[in-house]
Amino acid sequence: xxxxxxxxxxxxxxxxxxxxxxxxxxxxxxxxxxxxxxxxxxxxxxxxxxxxxxxxxxxxxxxxxxxxxxxxxxxxxxxxxxxxxxxxxxxxxxxxxxxxxxxxxxxxxxxxxxxxxxxxxxxxxxxxxxxxxxxxxxxxxxxxxxxxxxxxxxxxxxxxxxxxxxxxxxxxxxxxxxxxxxxxxxxxxxxxxxxxxxxxxxxxxxxxxxxxxxxxxxxxxxxxxxxxxxxxxxxxxxxxxxxxxxxxxxxxxxxxxxxxxxxxxxxxxxxxxxxxxxxxxxxxxxxxxxxxxxxxxxxxxxxxxxxxxxxxxxxxxxxxxxxxxxxxxxxxxxxxx
Length: 337
Fold this sequence. Notes:
There is one protein chain. The protein is mainly alpha-helical. Helix content is 61%, strand content 10%. It contains twelve helices and seven strands.
């Protein structure tokens, strides 16, 4: 474990999530276009109908228009920005390594931008809990197809159940309608996942280019109540060269990152040795070498508020087992995973 690099990775993860939020917000004009196109299509449609053929013809038009709109955002904004971001991430990781390693001890190289971009596009996202394996482009296309189908289902079901044209239009394109609420929320999940994938692939490309210095990487989860069960269990795990690859994102909306594990020959600056957390008492800095469950155990030892925090995260039965069952953190983690 290298405290400085873990702390840098945890802090940088906040920046990555903020950048993902910025990219998701760039979808707003395209969302407005989707709402406008839906209203135009529905304005030429009967007030009520149960004619399946006619409904399907209109839905084919919506599918064509919406696929084009989603595709414009993906190609003109999201993927273009992510490819630029991947190069910046590699440069950040090089700078991070330079601050961690004793000055002048070794020269750190930066991978070529084309090499990083190729890795981002050709390395699959792997979601262990769902057996999902998809390349980045396909992951995005599947998300687009899901959103289009959900709108089609709302329209088709609405007409068959006797809802009016205006009611269905409001359900989808009105204030607090499906596009306004669900798509806006869903795109944040998709973009965060794609951004985390890009960030971690850029970092690994840097590690691979400096494999005489970096012998592997450490998985760094977020210390708060929103971290998934899977990421709680793998926080702090070291993946060495030659090990089976285990790289975030591990699920949609995953915030886990990776931090370099350095060869012991290189001296490290351990003057900064904390990482951010948000527990029972709010935001606090804690020791960088604490894994998620070690941190959670410390939360449970902070009195009634701390115990309540643990119970809220793990559930009453598992929380009681974790705090009072006599299990070590490692044993509990193995049982959970």
